[in-house]
Structure formats: structure tokens, C-alpha cells
Structures
1.
Amino acid sequence: MRREIKQKWLQALRSKKYKQARLSLKRKLDDGSYGYCCLGVLAEVCGLNDWKTIKYQDGREDDKIALIHEGRKFYGNLPDECLEQISMRLDEARMLANMNDFSEMSFEEIANVIEQEISND
């Protein structure tokens, strides 16, 4: 992974600026604020910040917020081409998303794994 992106990501995960959420890159929380998966924080760090609330035909809004990239919607993973630009493998991204979503690891715990397991490019 590109060293400068990795360092910014680690700093962002540990900053307490981002609330943690599960099962979506970004979602609206019950209190009206927004929460992020660890990969959603990475999207923000990389400047991918075109988020769109999805509305149903009956007017209700989904709590999951889609990342819009080149006209496509992403909810759980980053676009492959974005991972390529930062030299991150898809299996690494999936591992971290699973730690966030299913192992329910904190951002601090995930940051520790990134430092130890994700190599610099």
C-alpha cells in the first residue's frame, strides 16, 4: 500500500473524527450523524467523497449511503481501480472490512492490524 495513504488512513482511524459503523462504507446513524466502515474512512482519505443517500420510490431513505464513482454506486467495497491506485490488494480490503463488520473490531484495533499486516508499496 502506498506509504503516504497508509499513514493518513491510520491517523484518520485513530483521530476519533469518524464514528464507526458496520455493513456499509458510510451510513446514517440513529442520531442523524454518519458512521463509516474502515474502508469508508479510507475513501475519505483518498478524496473519494461523492456520497449519495438512496431514496426509495415511497420517499423513505436508506440508512446506507452510496459512494458514487464513475457513475456507479458502491456500498461495501471500494472500486477496484481505486484499490489499484493506492496499491492495496482486494483480499486485504476484504479482510479489513470483515474485521470491521463481523469481528466488530474497533478502528484502533484495525489500525494496529494495518500497521502490522499491510505492507508498504
2.
Amino acid sequence: MSEMKALPFGSQSGPDLLYLDTSADPKDIWECATFRLDAAQQLVDYLAVQSAEGSQDGTAAVSNALAILLSDSRGLFDELHESIKRYQAKEKEAEEKGWQQAAIRATIHLLRSPSKGGEV
């Protein structure tokens, strides 16, 4: 079942419109975030070249695009972090359950086994 979460404010142009599926595979979230970071890096590289050549054309448009891409990336990486924490919590819970079940099985085994001359 999909669990939708709005992307950060900087990714929106008004009311929350852009969402991400928090139940998506963490690898997919990571790929989406790094794709946006790569695009942002390309824009920064472009600005550096333009600046070195003394041109300021397109700076505002590139800056706006960077702001959106970086906001998206930040939101995706934040969700990836939350996804990792949820996974680790489930893993810890499963481990604790495993220990509890093992203790219950051992206790049942001890209770069912006949006592041999007072030995426990």
C-alpha cells in the first residue's frame, strides 16, 4: 500500500502537489534523489563556465532550477533516511522476537522433559 508524503516546500509552487511514495524501494528513492543531484551539479558546472566567460545570461533561470532540484533531492534523501530507520527498527524488533521465541521454546522444552533424579 502506498504511503504518500509531500515533497518539501521548495519543491512546491503552491499547495502540496508533488508527493513521494514512502513505501517505495529505498534504492528507487536513492536513484531519484541522485538523479536530481546530478542535474543540479550539471547546472552548477554550467554556471561556473558562464561566470568564467563573463556571461550572466540565464543565471536567474539556472538558480531557480537549482533550488527546485536541490529541494527535491533533500526531501528524497530525508525520506530515504526515515526508510532506513524504519527498516532498522523492524530488524531490531524481529531480532528481539527471535530471542523471545527461543527463550519460550527452551522453557517449554525444560517443562516437558522429565526430571532425572532431581536434576534440572
3.
Amino acid sequence: MIRIPPPTIRLAAQVLWQRRKEREGKLSGSSAGEGWDSWEGISCLEHHWESLPGSRKENFAQMAALVLQYMAAQEPGKESQAELEGDGVREVAGLLARFAANNHTVCDDELRPIGVGIYPLAAMVSEPTTPRRREGATSPIFAM
């Protein structure tokens, strides 16, 4: 039986694959490594790593190992290449910490959750350090 990994694991793999394409120059337009929809935009997001308890860091490290296993299964023979490109457990764990602090739930037209997404510009808008932000407040963002 094939097990499909959780949305966060798949999203992390997608982000890392996009970063690889950015490094190789295989993207064009707004996704070519510049702007908010690139690795540069994601890497600017807060991760709060220093303030995380050890158990949470360990959890992110375990999830990072799953991301790398998933990527290796999708691209046989490239598992060592991911490590050489800097996509080690520590870096992927940091990415997952960014996700925990900045991800958004993607909903269908009836507001049922269907996945997760990382939208750096929207994450910057809803950053908890923003003075207008209130505890428990939500900021729906609608896209057409």
C-alpha cells in the first residue's frame, strides 16, 4: 500500500525542488529566484528556532528526515545530491519551523481545508509582531 505523506511534507519537498530549479536557472519570470514567491522570499520569514523547546526541534528534525526520504523516493539516485546541495536535516527542519510560523490553510469555496500553502507576502502581512495584530485574530485572504 502506498502511503501519501502529509501536506506539510509534500509542501516542503515542493519548495526544495523549486529552490533546486532556481539554483539551476531552470525557472523564468517571477519564479526565477527573485521576489516573494521564491526561496529568497521564504527564507526571509521568521522561524523562531531559538525560542523553540528541544522537543519541538526534535519533531522538526524527524519531519525533515521524512521530507528527504520522500524526495529521494520521488527521484531515485538523488538522495545524496540533496545532501550535497545543502538540503540537510538541519536546513529542512528550519524550513519546517518557518512553515509552522507562517503557513496558511488552503480552503475550497465552502471554506473546507484542502491543503496548506506558504505565501510569504501574506505571512508578512499577518506577522504577529505587526502592531495591529490581535491575539486570536484571523486575516482571511481570498484569491480568484
4.
Amino acid sequence: MRVVHEAMERRRRDRVGFPHNSPRVQPDKAIFADRRPLKGMAAAVATNVDFVHIVHKTRDMSTAYVSGRVPARYERLVARQARAARTSKSDLVARYVIEKSLETEFPGISFRDSLSGREAYLTGHRVAVWEVVAVREETKSVEKTVSHFRWPRVLVTRALAYAKAFPEEIRRSRDGETDTAPAAG
């Protein structure tokens, strides 16, 4: 039985990339990431780990961890989409969560790829939010903007509400789409 258990342990280590001779943490050397010594049960558990993962905190990063479980078939779908987008599953899922939350908060707003990256646009229309803002700035009136697009007023006010909530994003999208490369020749 012990031989079977050792073989299973070797396969587990190979599967997750551990070398067969990975060092174990000594109880008197076990420490928290901030260098405080572990005591009691934490030290006992640490003696049985194969590796230590250190998390670095940075002042510039303002993110939160969100976890969820999905059926395996959807995980495979996300993995395939992440490969196609040349990004990680984690980054893709984060984008999906953020965009779906914003679409729920701001009905009528959706997201798509553009020259400047992802951009907000009006669902069912080809017009980006920054374009609605540009027309509003030019006409100086919501009513004239509504007339320009021949849309219901609610669509224009939703686009303007989103733009008010995320002015930097709208500015970046507008700058990315309106900057032109010098003519060749």
C-alpha cells in the first residue's frame, strides 16, 4: 500500500510541476510572508507543503479577489476563448465580470473591441459612447443630440450617464479612435 501511495504522490508532483526531491519546510524555519515565525498548527501544516507561494502587495494595484465555480464545459469554453484572445483565463473572466456588471448597471451599454482596446457602445447600434459625447459637445444640447441620431432620448441619456461615470475611459477611447497615423509617402 505504501508503494502505491508513493507512486501516486510522485505522479501528483509531476502533474503540478514539483521536482521529486522538493525540499520540505523545517518546523523551526516556517514563516509567514511578512517573516513572522509560524507556531503551533500552522508550523505543523507548513512542514508538509511542497512549495511556498508569496503574494506581493503593491500600492499601485487596486484589485479585489472574486471567486466562483462553473461547470467544466464552460471552463473549457473560457480557456479556448482566452487562448484566442492571447490572454489568461483569469484576465478574461475578470473582463467578463466587469463588463457584465456594467451592462447591468447601465442598460443599453455593451462592450466591443476597437482600435483603442475595449470600448463602450450602445447595444444594437454601431455608435460608441464617446461618439455620443462628441455630438453632445458639438450640439451643446441633449435634444439636438437625440435629433442627430434619431434615437429615443433614453438612449442618449444612458450613453451620457455612462460617460459621466467613466470619463477617463471615454477619453482614452476617443483619443485612441481619433488619433491618426501620419500619411505614408
